[in-house]
Amino acid sequence: MGITSNDAAPRAVLLRFLFLLCIGCKCLASEVEATQTATLAVDASPQLARKIPDTLFGIFFEINHAGAGGIWAELVSNRGFEAGGLHTPSNIDPWSIIGDDSSVFVETDRTSCFSRNIVALRMEVLCDNCPTGGVGVYNPGFWGMNIEEGKVYNLVMFVKSPETTDLTVSLTSSNGLQNLASATVTVSGESNWIKVEQKLVAKGTNRTSRLQITTNKKGVVWFDQVSLMPEDTYKGHGFRTELISMILDLKPRFLRFPGGCFVEGGWLRNAFRWRESIGPWEERPGHFGDVWHYWTDDGLGYYEFLQLAEDLGTEPIWVFNNGVSHNDEVDTVAIAPFVKDVLDSIEFARGSANSTWGSVRAAMGHPEPFPVKYVAIGNEDCGKKFYRGNYLKFYNAIRQAYPDIQMISNCDGSSTPLDHPADLYDFHVYNDSKTLFNMKSTFDRTSRSGPKAFVSEYAVWRGDAGRGSLLASLAEAAFLTGLEKNSDIVSMASYAPLFVNDNDQTLVHAAFHSLHCFLLCSCRPNIVVRGEAT
Ligand SMILES: *[C@@H]1O[C@H](CO)[C@@H](O)[C@H](O)[C@H]1NC(C)=O
Ligand SMILES: *[C@@H]1O[C@H](CO)[C@@H](O)[C@H](O)[C@H]1NC(C)=O
Ligand SMILES: *[C@@H]1O[C@H](CO)[C@@H](O)[C@H](O)[C@H]1NC(C)=O
Questions:
Q1: Which residue has its alpha carbon closest to ligand 1 atom 11?
Q2: What integer pLDDT is reported at residue 529 of this predicted model?
Q3: CB-based contacts of 381: which residues, under 8 Å, 6+ apart?
Q4: Which are the catalytic amino acids?
Q5: Per-residue b/e over 106-117, b at no fewer than 16 CB within 10 Å?
Q6: Ligand 1 mean position to 208 CA, how many Å?
Q7: Residue identifier of the C-alpha nearest atom 1 of ligand 2
Q8: How far is the CA of 431 from the centre of ligand 3 (A)?
Q9: Atom 13, ligand 1: residue with shortest CA distance
Q10: Ligand 3 centre and the CA of 432: distance in Å?
């Protein structure tokens, strides 16, 4: 953790805050009644001092296309044509066709060179004299690609063309009329798949652009794993620089990933699988997240999350599936392979470069281990039938192999002690502003011994939150003061969700700004001030 706060700054910030508060009250008061005054009594005595843990405020990552179509810079959606499922013909959405039935026939088949994502796109050009501009396919990305003048975009695609063909790859406006970048790639006739790499430099800007691949040549061409990434990503690691800079401003002390319910899945077969999200991106199968209802190509996978935590200078918190989803569960008697799978995931992060899984990490470009010190055993699964049984299997195996790793239980220990061992426990709250405001005293009553609280998801939601409101922000801020006040037993807290893509507001109550304010004041006072307005 690179950030140390000096002692003078907190007080200065605090005083400025109180000053602004007074000004604010006066303005407000003068409108209501000129003579009304407010007194704020501040007890800053040393015996009330409480050391705020270094880890207190962090971020939780999930949902609303926060990854795919969000912080991950990949511009192509459904790059491997797998989103429509394994049964062909399949839906190629959001890909679409340039040309009509008489000029081009496009379908999926199962001829990819990648065994874990076997679906490929087959395009048969029927026209001898094709329309001007040719026929082909286009991908509009996630609600349009933001192509910016002067920027460089790296196109990578896998192509199979038995006959020599010229392919035109271009970036155009959504109606195809404005050409922002274009290049012609000659694919020499081959019965094998070849990898095509092409740089495109944008000569204009359009926020709702698309990627087109067209040709005038009659014949058959197959495509698979079509990727378009801006050349400029944060540290070259694939993340959007402007969004990363917003996160850096928050100075998060930890990154809880990859979810949330994303970890569980509606059904286990749709849960996040770390092993299918590592290795070369073109070999990743991708998966349908059935809780938030969208496909992800898993370009942002387990490795990239660990890399993100490192790039942010923050503690990674790996939330893994413990054999429980929203609708089905693995019986504890059959949980052993899942335990082994999770031990492998920790070896992938922490093992030396010559360990089985550490060597896979090293091959991906990171020989040094990622220092994972926290793992969460599931998400919101405390009440499930096999949770405790499975939990103990994971807990004991990890404790034995990695004695230093802090483990997080899904069971709330804020009012009654846990009936199982844990270092921390999750505490989640989504409610109206009044309830959250009153919950500022929740942890006042919590036992001072036992595992610490990780308030890993909190927010005012629904009517009070709307698309962000002052009321919600104030209630959340009040709740946070309660966490700071009790930071001897509350170790960590993160708002949910971190990002909302305007086009996917499955879970919206974003009060990014209240959090932003709170985290920016990472020169947080080391003294908790109790105030009382009279
Ligand atoms: C982007 O393209 C759309 C048509 O798809 C057009 O209406 C719009 O004016 C273009 N924007 C710019 C900035 O050129
Ligand atoms: C793995 O590498 C470490 C140093 O990085 C070394 O100490 C250890 O002996 C190696 N183990 C094997 C099995 O090669
Ligand atoms: C707040 O929490 C209570 C108790 O869990 C619940 O009954 C109520 O529906 C919640 N309100 C909102 C707006 O979520």
A1: 206
A2: 28
A3: 264, 322, 324, 387, 410
A4: 380
A5: bebeeebbbeeb
A6: 7
A7: 354
A8: 5
A9: 206
A10: 7
For the chain, give every domain's residue range: 57-73+234-530, 96-230
Helix runs in 91-178, H state only = none
Ligand 1 atom closest to the Cα of residue 174 is 5
- Dihedral (CA of 412, 414, 417, 422) sign: positive
Q: Which of 96, 171, 172, 178 to mutate to test the pocket of ligand 1 (most atoms within 8 A of CB)?
A: 178
CB 390 within 8 A of CB 275: no
Q: Residue 90 contacts by C-beta under 8 Å, 6 or more apart in sequence?
A: 81, 84, 108, 119
Candidates 174, 84, 95; CA nearest to 136 is: 95
Determine the residue of 415, 429, 431 to mutate for testing ligand 3's pocket, defined as the one with the most ligand atoms within 8 A of the Cβ atom. 431
Non-local (6+) Cβ contacts of 32 within 8 A are none
Question: Phi-psi category of 216—alpha, beta or left, where left has phi over 0 and alpha has psi -120 to 50?
Answer: alpha
Task: Give residues (CB < 6 A) around ligand 2.
Answer: 352, 354
Give CATH superfamily name and number for 96-230.
Galactose-binding domain-like (2.60.120.260)
As a whole number of angstroms, the distance between CA 151 and CA 139 comes to 19
Q: Is the pLDDT reported for residue 148 higher than 60?
A: yes
At 224-254, the pLDDT tens digits run 999 999 999 999 999 999 999 999 999 999 9
Q: Which CATH superfamily is domain 57-73+234-530 in?
A: Glycosidases (3.20.20.80)
DSSP string, 16-50: HHHHHHHHHHHHHHHHH-TT----EEEE--GGGB-
CA–CA distances in Å: residue 129 to residues 132, 150, 163, 221, 222: 9, 34, 18, 17, 21
What are the pocket residues of ligand 3 if the criterion is a CB atom closer than 6 Å to any ligand atom?
A: 430-432, 435, 462
Pocket residue to mutate for ligand 1, from 147, 173, 174, 180, most atoms within 8 A of Cβ: 173
Distance 105 CA to ligand 1 centre (A): 29
Question: What is the CB < 6 Å shell around ligand 1?
Answer: 173-175, 178, 205-206, 208
Q: Which residue minimizes the CA distance to atom 10 of ligand 1?
A: 206
pLDDT tens-digit readout, 174-215: 999 999 999 999 998 888 999 999 999 999 999 999 999 999
* Residue 486 confidence (pLDDT) above 90: yes
Is pLDDT of 364 > 60?
yes
Q: Report CA(327)–ligand 3 centroid distance (Å).
A: 23
Dist CA 335 CA 331 (whole Å) = 6
Q: Which residues make Cβ contacts (< 8 Å) with residue 103, sequence separation at least 6?
A: 125, 126, 127, 130, 131, 135
Name beta bridge partners: 329.
324
